[in-house]
Amino acid sequence: MEINDTLLKDIHNKQLNILLVFDKICRENGFKYSLSSGTLLGAVRHKGFIPWDDDVDVVMPREDYEQFISVANKILPEGYFLEHFKTNKNTCDLYARLIDVNTTWINPGFEKNDKINQGIFIDIFTADKVDDIKQVPKIAKKIRFYWHLDNNYYLKGVQKPLIKKIACAILYTPWARMLGFEKINTKMDNLLQSLNKTGNGEYYLADDLKVKKVFPKRIFEEYTELPFEGYKFMATKYYDEYLTIQYNDYMTLPPVEERSFHHPYKVIDCNKPFKFYIDKFKNNKK
After folding, report:
1. Pure H helices in the chain
2. pLDDT of 232 strictly over 60
3. What is the C-alpha to C-alpha distance for residues 179 and 232, in angstroms, rounded to an integer?
4. 105 membership: H or E segment, kind and range
5. Does 131 score more than 60 pLDDT?
6. d(C-alpha 226, C-alpha 14), whole Å
7. At residue 210, does pLDDT exceed 80?
8. Burial (CB count within 10 angstroms: exposed 0-12, middle 13-18, buried 19+), residue 18
9. Most buried of the four, 84, 144, 254, 259, by CB within 10 Å?
10. Helix (H, G, I), strand (E, B) or coil at 78
């Protein structure tokens, strides 16, 4: 489906409301977090959403992340759900998503999947301590294997050439179906946490599942507030250093041709719950 300016504005408004709910819970319970990736970049460069961005990212130190997951669905207001493999064994994603269940965000290939929550969401990533940088590539290689299993569990809707789909169907899909999402995601999560065996790592791995970058310890130990869409949210005190590591010259706008949405969509509706559309797809109604 096409994303026009009006729909994108509505998506941003819903995501902002979810972010406000998340921020309130974190402040009331003393959980640390930072805006991250494109959301932090948007806060610094645009004082809000990057105009062409279509998601919200936050990152939490591992300890805070685990505590948040353990209590979120007990204290979230009605209409919200924390989707994570510890709260829903059928979820496809390693990291947590805070979802507005009264909205719809259905990706291609998931039109009849009623086992997961498919509303508009924000992504919640971990910041994991790293004891030994030399171990990162080894862990990264293992994570990428399980990531391929995750991504190829459902071949329908996968945007790949036919020859690659056939290869994935042979190499990954049977193994993925045998293990299931809960075991796959648990294995990846354990690999990430294995980078911090001593508990005294001097670096952090954050946001990037493929383990490409590490950050100095101080970045996720001191926080400030930054304006975002007229509100103030938590951010690393060293946001300039974080963004430089992530994007290099982050204040320079990308070329026009690179200013585009990066998530696939089948259906997005800011006003109807995803179950409405899933029922329609399952009954083959147009």
Report:
1. 5-29, 37-46, 62-75, 136-151, 162-171, 173-179, 181-193, 239-247, 274-282
2. yes
3. 42
4. strand 104-106
5. yes
6. 20
7. no
8. buried
9. 84
10. coil
3-state secondary structure 13-55: HHHHHHHHHHHHHHHHHCCCCEECHHHHHHHHHHCCCCCCCCC
CA 252, CA 278: separation in Å to the nearest integer?
Answer: 41
64-73, 203-212, 222-231, 268-277: which range is least confident on average?
203-212
pLDDT of residue 24: 98
Q: Are 54 and 123 in contact (CB under 8 A)?
A: no
pLDDT mean over 20-31: 98
Q: What residues have CB less than 8 Å from 235, skipping those under 6 apart?
A: 34, 35, 40, 43, 223, 224, 225, 226
Q: Name the pLDDT band for 154 (thresholds 50, 70, 90).
A: confident
Report the DSSP pairing between strands 120-130 and 57-61.
Answer: parallel
User: Per-residue pLDDT for 159 more than 70?
Assistant: no
Query: In one letter, which amino acid is 6?
Result: T
Q: What are phi and psi of 81, to 5 degrees?
A: -145, 135
Q: How far is the C-alpha of 90 from the C-alpha of 71, rounded, in Å?
A: 19
Residues 121/58, Cβ–Cβ less than 8 Å: no
Can you count the helices (H) and strands (E) in the chain? 9, 11
pLDDT at residue 257, rounded to an integer:
78
- All domains of the chain, ordered by start, with CATH? 5-129+201-282 (3.30.460)
